[in-house]
Amino acid sequence: MLAATSKFTAGAAVLLAAGLSALSATPVAAQDVRADLVSPVNPRSALACPSPDVYSRTRPDPPGTPTLVGVAMFFHDVSNLNDGDQTITADVTVMLRWRDTRLADQTRGDASADCPVPGTNLWVPVIEPDNLRSRQQYYEPRFLVNGRGTITYARRLLVQIAQPLDLRAFPFDRHEWRFTVWPVVSTSEEVVFAELPFTGRNERMSLQGWTVGAPVPHASLEERRGRLGRYARFDVALETTRESFYYVCKLGVPLVLITLMAYGVYFIPTSAVAQQIGLSMTSMLTLIAYMLALSGGLPRISYLTKADRFYVGAALLVFLGLMKAILTIVLAARPEKMALVERADRTGRWLYPVGMVLNGLNAYFL
């Protein structure tokens, strides 16, 4: 009886130890996969590629265990940002990494064999982007496999992404563009994303008129509209800040000068009515031309930008100068009313500059 009891106790201890070992092996294995995914890519020529005979269309992980897929985006260039179409064009490499032990070969070691891209006979995570307007591929995809079966699949694409912009702060605006990818079919029970340390950008960009920030990656699980379950999601946020010096010099300074030109109507003698009307009309028409020049580069929006508010205030100031010139014409035939015109001139000489300052404060600081 004692022998049977000790055998049972020993067997239970073995089973308990095996269970604890299995429980601890799962996070260790997951950490091992994650560490392998974030390790540097080490491509080598003349290494043997996996045989297509070991390829399989099923996922490398068993049912109930999602496949960890590392994702990274490297921006070689941002060539265009069209705030009229609300699109951005970027030359970007999209990298996916996952482990498939069926393709492992210890003879490769840490190096990766540069292999032909497999067809449909090997499981590959298929992703789709959000808000993609167009894409072009100039280089063939790269398919690399190292000794542990870690696969690196990279594609370099020229993509155009569309995104609604908030232009209220124009020309001192900044925008955060989001490059988002999802699995086409697989839910989070099959595929989860992880951030790879390879997301970044080149130091120099060909985009003019904007400052491009560092891309910031983020992996998460989200619900998708019209689909059941939760899905892996990978975002890269790329902030762009408009360089406003061009607009200040080319549009802001001339606009201030045009407004100051209209200010001269308060210093022209009341006897020179034609000169007052001519100066006011010239200022108004020039102001309208500048407003049209600005509106051609922006989308049709239902709100006023900071620049629009400044232009509207300037137009009101110029229009008041025109109204003063018309008042001079009306009262010129009535000498007893000329004192009213002179009082309007004196008041306008100090009130007009105050109006310009208040217009600037209201447009850009309130």
Write structural notes for this entry.
Helix 2 runs antiparallel to helix 3 (273-295), helix 2 packs parallel to helix 4 and helix 4 runs antiparallel to helix 5 (338-364). The chain has two domains: 42-47 and 54-242, Distorted Sandwich (Acetylcholine Binding Protein, Chain: A); 245-364, Neurotransmitter-gated ion-channel transmembrane domain (Methane Monooxygenase Hydroxylase, Chain G, domain 1, Up-down Bundle). Residues 1-28 have low confidence and may be disordered. The termini are far apart. The protein has five helices and 14 strands. It has helices spanning 2-37, 245-263, 273-295, 306-331, 338-364, and strands at 43-44, 67-82, 87-99, 112-115, 127-129, 132-137, 142-146, 150-162, 174-183, 191-195, 200-201, 210-212, 216-223, 230-242. The protein is rod-shaped and about 105 Å long. The longest helix has 36 residues, at 2-37. It is of the alpha+beta class and 366 residues long.
List the helices and strands and how they pair.
Layout: H1 2-37, E1 43-44, E2 67-82, E3 87-99, E4 112-115, E5 127-129, E6 132-137, E7 142-146, E8 150-162, E9 174-183, E10 191-195, E11 200-201, E12 210-212, E13 216-223, E14 230-242, H2 245-263, H3 273-295, H4 306-331, H5 338-364
Parallel strand pairs: 1-4, 2-10, 2-11
Antiparallel strand pairs: 2-3, 3-8, 4-7, 5-9, 6-8, 7-8, 9-14, 12-14, 13-14
Helix pairs in contact: 2-3, 2-4, 3-4, 4-5
Summarize the model shown.
This protein has 366 residues and is an alpha+beta fold. The chain has helices at 2-37, 245-263, 273-295, 306-331, 338-364, and strands spanning 43-44, 67-82, 87-99, 112-115, 127-129, 132-137, 142-146, 150-162, 174-183, 191-195, 200-201, 210-212, 216-223, 230-242.
